[in-house]
């Protein structure tokens, strides 16, 4: 009966359930006693704040436990009139138990401390509720020793008297914390010994403990609890400052960081935030890049320009030209992401609170703390500190705002220097940090300005750990979203061959990153030749025919479909004699995106690969059926392309039966079909 409905309970909420009305008093009594045992067991746990109140509540409930056990041991047959009182008691005990659970949580100590007044009040309310419940217990109808009855009456009197005040020491530490937060707002470094006292009071004495608290606050911020986001963010800033500044070494991670949501596997090295238009904050449907290199949704930026603002919304830079260039690589990725995640493309999706996307800190204290942390880390990574590189890596994951603080503080050149480190950990942390900083537009620029392209390619080729190579590929992918940098990467003779190596010999994650990086580079037409020359195409077919994950298959198809849009690509693909495997995937894949790429690829091959391709395709027994099913089941683009392809195949039949074979298709006729 005391099954816990606890999974997913928010802190400081008490979802107690009322026992059912028809319950027998004896059953209820058993359950009550079990609850009191459970409550008393909290006595031995660490209670960081409100300790006195918690122990007092436990003590009183312990007395009631003795009383309840006496009743149980007494004569059988409890009057039904006890049910009312027992039920109320039960409800109160459940809540006390929840409260104690929160008081003893080992990742929410600072938060519980800051809420100590609320918690003390809650104890008072619950203990008085308990006394009221006992008041209505018909003591006369119950057989227990007189002394026990007297003891319970004593507890009831005490319950009404005990004030459950906030512990003075808790109060003092809360004030100290508030002072530090105000200091952060003014960018004043907190007094270390004061911080030490605060941490000591709540028992945060190691890096990993501190990180647990940070994670807890992060998950709370994730809830739509707008009233408290400011304080939560400030405290998180404080703890992050402590984590970076007060603890000299990382003593192991407290378990895997919980995934905030069921993020896509598909574009797993990407983040939904990168798909949102910085103006509308919606997922972009038609991303375009403006002169400053930033991408926006076409409709948003056009509206912005029409409103007479000739400046880049993100950088504030004045624009000489309002020319926009479609960012096709990004668009494809977004489409793929949406397809795989069942988000209708072009539909904004739901707006949920996604901290990662925020471009501002949650509060001005958090902002100050973050800037000071960034400066501290910059100085310390400048001395080659691996711990600082690790902290930067962690921070670079969190949000646009935090990335921008790190970039502004100047960490990028130091991280680039660390890439040459002989310490494999330091190298990996540095390149992982760079990966996430390369999502930031200024971050990209600083990386490139400091010769980062070559340094990252070096890691890609010769990283000390496979993870480092993977992160390097991911970094190139982000850099490749800017035309100029795409060119730079393409010009490095080792870049594309090294990506090919990773596709050949990497882990799934490595392959994935290399594939998307190549996909990004292909947006620059001149680089098609280099990708072909590096011998990437046969590797892609290896992925298609091996039992590799569907994600990799889809990415490979995306690259093939892009390459096939040019004659030399189509020729190279045709040479692999792999039309059957493409048709096979179209027939059996469960991924809508993969099917769409198959149709695009086949259509482009027909247009650019010449007559042979069409002649081979018409012989395929299952192709027509697959294409017809795409007409109704495919994405709208897949269905349009399937229809074009059906037409091509029909035309081929007609020309063959009515005279000499001529070239049916003008080259590139279908290349830009949308
Ligand atoms: C995430 O997705 C996986 C597989 O699709 C599923 O097994 C898992 O339960 C999901 N997790 C959450 C938290 O939704
Ligand atoms: C990072 O940024 C987010 C939102 O901008 C903020 O809530 C958080 O406190 C920042 N700091 C850390 C250490 O993550
Ligand atoms: C980059 O940040 C994302 C979240 O924004 C995270 O999931 C990913 O692990 C980070 N990458 C690296 C290499 O640390
Ligand atoms: C392939 O990877 C393995 C380890 O993952 C490594 O030992 C081997 O040298 C690599 N081969 C090539 C050709 O890079
Ligand atoms: C990639 O594109 C750039 C820009 O045109 C070019 O300079 C570079 O040589 C290309 N790589 C090749 C030829 O594959
Ligand atoms: C198409 O798929 C079905 C089942 O998914 C299978 O039975 C059939 O053999 C496949 N046809 C070809 C040509 O691969």
TrEMBL record:
<keyword id="KW-0677">Repeat</keyword>
<dbReference type="Pfam" id="PF04564">
    <property type="entry name" value="U-box"/>
</dbReference>
<dbReference type="GO" id="GO:0016874">
    <property type="term" value="F:ligase activity"/>
</dbReference>
<feature type="repeat" description="ARM">
    <location>
        <begin position="410"/>
        <end position="452"/>
    </location>
</feature>
<dbReference type="InterPro" id="IPR057623">
    <property type="entry name" value="PUB12-19-like_N"/>
</dbReference>
<keyword id="KW-0012">Acyltransferase</keyword>
<keyword id="KW-0833">Ubl conjugation pathway</keyword>
<dbReference type="InterPro" id="IPR000225">
    <property type="entry name" value="Armadillo"/>
</dbReference>
<dbReference type="InterPro" id="IPR045210">
    <property type="entry name" value="RING-Ubox_PUB"/>
</dbReference>
<dbReference type="InterPro" id="IPR016024">
    <property type="entry name" value="ARM-type_fold"/>
</dbReference>
<dbReference type="InterPro" id="IPR011989">
    <property type="entry name" value="ARM-like"/>
</dbReference>
<comment type="pathway">
    <text>Protein modification; protein ubiquitination.</text>
</comment>
<dbReference type="InterPro" id="IPR013083">
    <property type="entry name" value="Znf_RING/FYVE/PHD"/>
</dbReference>
<keyword id="KW-0436">Ligase</keyword>
<keyword id="KW-0808">Transferase</keyword>
<dbReference type="InterPro" id="IPR003613">
    <property type="entry name" value="Ubox_domain"/>
</dbReference>
<protein>
    <recommendedName>
        <fullName>RING-type E3 ubiquitin transferase</fullName>
        <ecNumber>2.3.2.27</ecNumber>
    </recommendedName>
</protein>
<feature type="domain" description="U-box">
    <location>
        <begin position="270"/>
        <end position="344"/>
    </location>
</feature>
<dbReference type="GO" id="GO:0016567">
    <property type="term" value="P:protein ubiquitination"/>
</dbReference>
<dbReference type="InterPro" id="IPR058678">
    <property type="entry name" value="ARM_PUB"/>
</dbReference>
<dbReference type="Pfam" id="PF25598">
    <property type="entry name" value="ARM_PUB"/>
</dbReference>
<dbReference type="Pfam" id="PF25368">
    <property type="entry name" value="PUB10_N"/>
</dbReference>
<dbReference type="GO" id="GO:0061630">
    <property type="term" value="F:ubiquitin protein ligase activity"/>
</dbReference>
<dbReference type="GO" id="GO:0010029">
    <property type="term" value="P:regulation of seed germination"/>
</dbReference>
């Amino acid at each position: 009966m005391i099954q816990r409905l606890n999974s997913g309970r928010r802190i400081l909420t008490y979802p107690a359930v009322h026992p059912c009305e028809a319950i027998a008093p004896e059953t209820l009594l058993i359950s009550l006693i079990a609850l009191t045992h459970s409550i008393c067991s909290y006595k031995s746990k660490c209670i960081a704040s409100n300790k006195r109140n918690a122990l007092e509540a436990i003590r009183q409930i312990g007395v009631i436990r003795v009383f309840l056990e006496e009743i149980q041991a007494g004569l059988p047959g409890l009057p039904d009139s006890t049910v009312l009182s027992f039920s109320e008691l039960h409800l109160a005990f459940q809540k006390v138990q929840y409260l104690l659970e929160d008081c003893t949580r080992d990742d929410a100590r600072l938060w519980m401390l800051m809420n100590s007044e609320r918690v003390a009040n809650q104890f008072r309310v619950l203990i008085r509720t308990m006394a009221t419940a006992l008041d209505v217990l018909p003591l006369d109808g119950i057989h227990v020793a007189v002394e026990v009855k007297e003891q319970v009456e004593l507890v009831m009197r005490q319950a009404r008297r005990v004030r459950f005040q906030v512990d003075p020491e808790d109060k003092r530490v809360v004030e100290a914390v508030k002072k530090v937060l105000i200091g952060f707002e003014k960018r004043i470094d907190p007094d270390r010994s004061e911080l030490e006292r605060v941490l000591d009071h709540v028992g945060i004495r190691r890096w990993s403990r501190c990180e647990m608290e940070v994670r807890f606050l992060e998950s709370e911020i994730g809830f739509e609890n707008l009233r408290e986001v400011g304080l939560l963010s400030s405290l998180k800033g404080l703890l992050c400052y402590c984590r970076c500044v007060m603890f000299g070494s990382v003593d192991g991670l407290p378990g895997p960081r919980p995934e905030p949501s069921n993020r896509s596997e598909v574009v797993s090295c990407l983040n939904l935030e990168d798909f949102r238009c910085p103006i509308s904050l919606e997922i972009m449907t038609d991303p375009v890049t403006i002169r400053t290199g930033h991408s926006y949704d076409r409709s948003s930026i056009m509206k912005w320009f029409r409103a007479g603002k000739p400046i880049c919304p993100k950088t504030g830079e004045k624009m000489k030209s309002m020319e926009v260039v479609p960012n096709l690589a990004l668009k494809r990725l977004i489409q793929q992401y949406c397809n795989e995640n069942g988000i209708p493309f072009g539909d904004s999706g739901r707006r949920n609170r996604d901290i990662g996307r925020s471009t501002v800190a949650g509060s001005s204290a958090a902002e100050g703390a973050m800037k000071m942390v960034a400066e501290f880390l910059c100085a310390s990574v400048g001395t080659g500190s691996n711990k600082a590189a690790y902290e930067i890596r962690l921070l670079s994951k969190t949000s646009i705002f935090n990335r921008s603080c790190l970039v502004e503080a100047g960490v990028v050149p130091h991280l680039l220097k660390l890439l040459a480190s002989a310490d494999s950990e330091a190298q990996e942390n540095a390149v992982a940090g760079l990966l996430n900083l390369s999502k930031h537009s200024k971050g990209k620029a600083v990386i490139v300005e400091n010769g980062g392209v070559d340094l990252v390619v070096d890691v890609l080729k010769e990283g000390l750990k496979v993870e480092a190579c993977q992160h390097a590929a991911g970094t190139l992918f982000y850099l490749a979203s800017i035309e100029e940098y795409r060119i730079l990467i393409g010009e490095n003779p080792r870049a594309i061959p090294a990506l090919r190596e990773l596709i050949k010999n990497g882990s799934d994650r490595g392959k994935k990153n290399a594939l998307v990086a190549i996909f990004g580079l292909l947006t620059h037409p001149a680089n098609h030749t280099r990708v072909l020359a590096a011998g990437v195409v046969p590797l892609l077919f290896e992925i298609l025919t091996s039992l590799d994950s569907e994600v990799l298959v889809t990415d490979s198809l995306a690259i093939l479909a892009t390459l096939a849009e040019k004659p030399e690509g189509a020729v190279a693909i045709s040479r692999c004699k792999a039309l059957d495997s493409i048709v096979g995937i179209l027939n059996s894949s469960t991924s809508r995106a993969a099917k769409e790429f198959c149709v695009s690829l086949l259509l482009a091959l027909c247009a650019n690969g010449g007559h042979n391709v069409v002649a081979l395709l018409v012989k395929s027994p299952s192709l027509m059926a697959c294409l017809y099913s795409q007409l109704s089941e495919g994405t709208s683009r897949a269905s349009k392309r399937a229809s074009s392809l059906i037409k091509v195949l029909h035309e081929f039949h007609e020309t063959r039966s009515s005279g000499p074979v001529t070239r049916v298709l003008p080259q590139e006729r279908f290349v830009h079909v949308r």
